[in-house]
Amino acid sequence: MFRIAVLAWHCPISTMERMIVISHLQKVDGATTLLEMESLTVAAGEITAVTGLTGIHKTTFLDLLTGKTQPTAGTVRLAGIDPWQDRAAFARLVGALSAENGLYPRLSARQNLTFFCDLYGLPHGRADAILQLVGLQDQARVQAENLDPGLARRLAMGRALLHQPQVLLLVEPFAECDLASTGLLERLIRVTAAEGTAVLLISRDLAGLRPLCQTVLEMENGRVAQQYRPAERESQANLPFKIPARLEDKVVLVNPADIVYVAAEEGRTVLCTPDGRIPTHLTLNEVEQRLARSGFFRAHRSYLVNVQHISEVIAYTRNSYTLILHNGGGGDDGRGRIEIPLSKTAARDLREMLGY
After folding, report:
1. Which of 8, 22, 119, 175 is deepest in the core (most CB within 10 A)?
2. How many CA atoms lie within 13 A of 127 on its CB side?
3. What's residue 89's pLDDT?
4. Bridge partner residues of 41 (DSSP)
5. Are 206 and 219 in contact (CB under 8 A)?
6. Are 276 and 258 in contact (CB under 8 A)?
């Protein structure tokens, strides 16, 4: 849970003010560079996503943003303050939703909020307003540990919004959410940004976040692989149709229709077709960009699949899914049947896309 200090109400801000500014940021541990980001700027009212961070790279980025660790080089500024140097100002100006909800399990939904109202110096009526905002009026007396996962996520979001922050940091914002909770949180994010808050979304992949964002940073191994505006990318119409793959003595141009799926394996990208596996020099993100209008879907951070080859979606548990593809060839089991992992968020997006 992020540490909170007693704070005062803040004043409205200009919608053009730069609220998140990262410059020449680097974190090094021994001889290992854990994170390197040349620049990132999010203005008031903007929504930006940082995707592709996992493991120690993700933890390092979050620790730098929340002031838990000091950069090796460069600067982080949130609403004009250094989170490492000024923890009280960080609590006053920044709202944060971690991957874990960080709720007090034995307290009711309302008590979780009134506890933070007391820390912030806010009237308890603010807790009631937040419960209404996140659609939990009827759950006010329910202990947090007894809330359904989607409702608990709503409550955690409400706590992040309680003090009307100028900057909002959201880690995996739709984790364990059903469709209703996801839709509500999406609307809250849009409304919060429209009211002048700078929003930074941090997620392993972009599934479900793209429609919300003005800017996307895709990371690989703690470094920026590419930065772009989804609206501009979607308007591009001149991307190459075929995917190049460099072999020893030639360049092969692969028709997207012949690709069953694309996988990132041990630092390289492989195009998987009924005739075999073809390595390409392009990154998975670059291949995804070229296949954006060819019916491909990001099923997992390491896999793109051709939707036309999906034959089954299997839910093993509430949070575990697998796609079954048929490629017309040998396949993983010799019968043209291939199993691809499907993330929970991607499973939700696929369900919405195909309407099942």
Report:
1. 22
2. 20
3. 93
4. 21
5. no
6. no
Token pair, residue 234, equals 């979607």
Token pair 């195009």 is at which residue? 271
CATH architecture of 242-354: Beta Barrel (2.40)
- Domain ranges in the chain with CATH number 2.40.50.1020: 242-354
Q: Strand, coil or helix: what is 61? A: helix
Confidence bin at 160 (pLDDT 50/70/90): very high
* CA distance readout (Å), 63 to 41, 57, 96, 270: 18, 10, 12, 34
Token pair recorded at residue 281: 């020099």
Taking only the tens place, the pLDDT of each residue in 220-257 is 889 998 888 887 765 544 455 678 887 777 888 888 88
From-to residues of CATH 3.40.50.300 in the chain:
18-232
CATH for 18-232 is 3.40.50.300
- Residue carrying structure tokens 């976040």: 209
Exposure letters 103-120 (e unless 16+ CB within 10 A, then b): beeeebbbebbbebbeeb
Q: Are 282 and 244 in contact (CB under 8 A)?
A: yes
